[in-house]
Amino acid sequence: MFHSHRTRTATALTAALLTAAAAPALAEDPMTVSVKRLSLDTAQKIAQATVDACREKGIQIGVTVVDRDGVVQVQLRDTIAAPITVPISYKKAYTAVNFNANTSALAERADTAVGRQDFLVMSAGGVTVTSGGSLIGGVGVSGAPAGETDEECAQAGVDAVQDDLEMAF
To answer: Which domains does the chain show, CATH number per domain?
Structure first.
């Protein structure tokens, strides 16, 4: 009798654990959310592809890749790029993720109270990184003679991994 009681208890406990483990798969937990994240490896690939794209144009740049929260994952400054390219590239990437828009689309807001914040740059050169319709990061570039060229290089960096991102999510 003692043995069968332990067996029933173990079976009931196992069933309860399996049910609890399966619950999140059956219904989304209303108290939490799932968030897609940009991996460090992917952020590094984006940054290097961005530098490479600008090098092909004969331009030395600084590039920053941030996660969806605007936290730096990777920063690179090409060999002779001016030191100021790094903080500017960060501000462009940070602005892109916080507005969920490429910074070139924000230029008309640059002269508003929001646009004059020290930590934002609303000129071309910041792009978002998305996968499956979700924002997962941003890329900012500084150093080209024109912001549009900064943005082309940033977009080339994203394009280098976009297919892999879509397959992963």
So the answer is: 40-168 (3.30.450.150)
- Amino acid letter for position 66: V
Q: pLDDT digits over 89-142, tens only?
A: 999 999 999 999 999 999 888 878 887 888 999 999 999 999 988 999 999 999
